[in-house]
Design a protein that fits this description.
The chain is of the alpha/beta class. The protein has twelve helices and 15 strands. Strand 12 and strand 13 form a beta hairpin. The protein is globular and about 60 Å long. It starts with a helix and ends in a 14-residue tail after the last helix.
Length: 495
């Protein structure tokens, strides 16, 4: 009897050893316009972000991570296709112009290969929940036609200007969520501004979160890719009142109400409202982390959090930024130069946190330069999926999978490239500590190349171009060689 039991145990152990380990689940959360310094783990002192701060303590924090572009659509294109702005199909924001009320942005083509497609082929269930921005549902850019089994949220970025919109996109259909929706742009030059005047029945971020959790629940027993490009803290400011009430009323007594003079919606307490949006986002991240714990999925799930670009910039009234945001009050760029729409550090350097229990060192930090094209090869390496051959990034696994809190840098095989066609046209090239920037490249009088040593000057205050012309020449040549001409995005000075 004892011999028989030992034999059964041995057989079970052999079968267990022969069974391959389940592939890791991947949760990728993308904030919208979250600034470099707007999380507690990145030095924020006023805004409460306990869940993301805990994620940073349990994982690794990147201090030199860069978005693919300084505005929404091209950043998402670079992220999902792994091609930098010199090769990307989308190099600036732009509507599809197909005549619908909320048509969506210019679509990526059927030839584009997304992360979702590669993971889908590797056996992953794929779901996207939040803001898409890469093509209408009736185009080649539809998320359902680009590798996602499920999509719920804002297909069009302009529809996402309101958190109480008339509808949200539901796969390739429409889910009407507000009978009396709130347009994302209004002004109130006089009279009392009340937050409740700009609310309707259904708060879109909550509905998006609910659908994301349903997808997680439905796929908890098999590998899944949960992509959550959440809409907060992009204005208009529409946060729940309970979060506004948690922040001091004294904050807004100095500047007073915001009346919509810089676009988007008025708000009686703009500073508290902006902090509330980020705290609400943090709470949604916490809810996803709790659901992973509930299902016992923490150990086998990689969680990645980052932002699509830097914080909102200024506008007509110097008292407020666009939509009433006061980035100076919160020190949102933490001393970096530039904002959203700029290839300077404040526009493209973004928070990035990765937690993979047993692989990432808790409380880790890396100053390895990295950017959005790196995520495609990284996720394929995690999922043992086959990536396309023409990706521009590097796998970050050597940085993520480390037992040391301060992993060593790896050698990137080529500089990081930005060819941004918005805001007058801007170029940037980063090679380790050196960064070359060129502004107004689509104007009649393009700016000259500027050069910065980011190790010594992260604020880009001292232009070293005349002192190191050989480095400028090398980085410009790297840009020339590593870009593709585009009929849609012409660049006469280099085409």
């Amino acid at each position: 009897m004892i011999t028989l039991r030992l034999l059964v145990v041995a057989i079970l152990c052999a079968l267990s050893a022969a069974t391959p380990a389940a592939k890791p689940n991947i949760v990728f959360i993308l904030a919208d316009d979250l600034g470099w310094g707007e999380l507690g783990s990145y030095g924020q002192k006023k805004i409460k972000t306990p869940n993301l701060d805990r994620l940073a303590k349990e994982g690794i924090r990147f201090t030199r991570h860069y978005t693919g572009a300084p505005v929404c659509a091209p950043a998402r294109c670079v992220l999902l296709t792994g091609r930098h702005l010199g090769h990307a199909e989308i190099r600036s924001n732009g509507d599809s112009k197909n005549g619908r009320k909320f048509p969506g942005q210019w679509p990526i083509t059927a030839h584009a290969v997304t992360i979702a497609e590669s993971l889908q082929e590797a056996g992953y269930a794929t779901g996207g929940f939040g803001k898409w921005g890469l093509g209408p549902t009736d185009s080649t850019g539809s998320p359902i036609r680009q590798g996602f089994d499920r999509f719920y949220g804002y297909n069009c970025q302009r529809n996402a200007h309101s958190f109480y919109p008339p509808f949200l996109d539901d796969d390739e259909g429409i889910d009407s969520i507000n009978k009396d929706p709130i347009p994302g742009h209004q002004r109130k030059p006089t009279g009392e501004v009340k937050a409740e005047d700009y609310r309707a029945e259904t708060y879109a971020p909550n509905r998006i979160l609910e659908e994301a959790l349903e997808f997680l629940d439905a796929n908890k027993t098999k590998p899944f890719f949960l992509y959550c490009p959440f809409v907060e803290p992009h204005v208009a400011m529409h946060p729940p009142q309970e979060w506004i009430d948690r922040y001091p009323k004294e904050w807004d007594q100095e500047k007073g109400v915001y009346r919509g003079q810089n676009g988007y919606l008025p708000h009686p307490r703009p500073r508290a409202a902006y902090a509330a949006m980020i705290s609400d986002l943090d709470e949604h991240v916490g809810t996803i982390l709790q659901r992973l714990e509930q299902h016992g999925l923490v150990e086998n799930t990689v969680v990645i959090f980052t932002s699509d670009n830097g914080t909102t910039h200024g506008s007509r009234d110097p008292k407020f930024g666009v939509g009433g945001v006061d980035s100076a009050f919160f020190n949102s760029t933490a001393g970096l130069r530039g904002f959203k729409g700029s290839v300077n550090e404040g526009g493209i350097r973004v928070p990035a946190i990765v937690r993979w229990p047993g692989r990432t060192a808790p409380g880790g930090k890396t100053d390895t330069p990295s950017y959005f094209p790196d995520w495609f090869p990284t996720l394929c390496a995690i999922a043992e999926a086959k990536p396309p051959k023409d990706l521009d990034g590097e796998s970050l696994l050597p940085v993520i999978q480390t037992a040391t809190p301060s992993p060593a840098k790896f050698n990137r095989h080529k500089p990081m490239i930005w060819e941004f066609h918005g805001y007058g046209g801007q170029l940037a090239v980063i090679d380790d500590s050196w960064k070359a920037v060129r502004q107004r490249v689509r104007s009649k009088k393009p700016g000259e190349w500027q050069l910065y040593d980011l190790n010594r000057d992260p604020a880009e205050a001292q232009n070293l171009a005349t002192k190191h012309p050989e480095i400028v020449k090398r980085l410009e040549e790297a840009f020339r060689k590593d870009r593709t001409k585009s009929e849609k995005y012409k660049l006469p000075i280099y085409d």
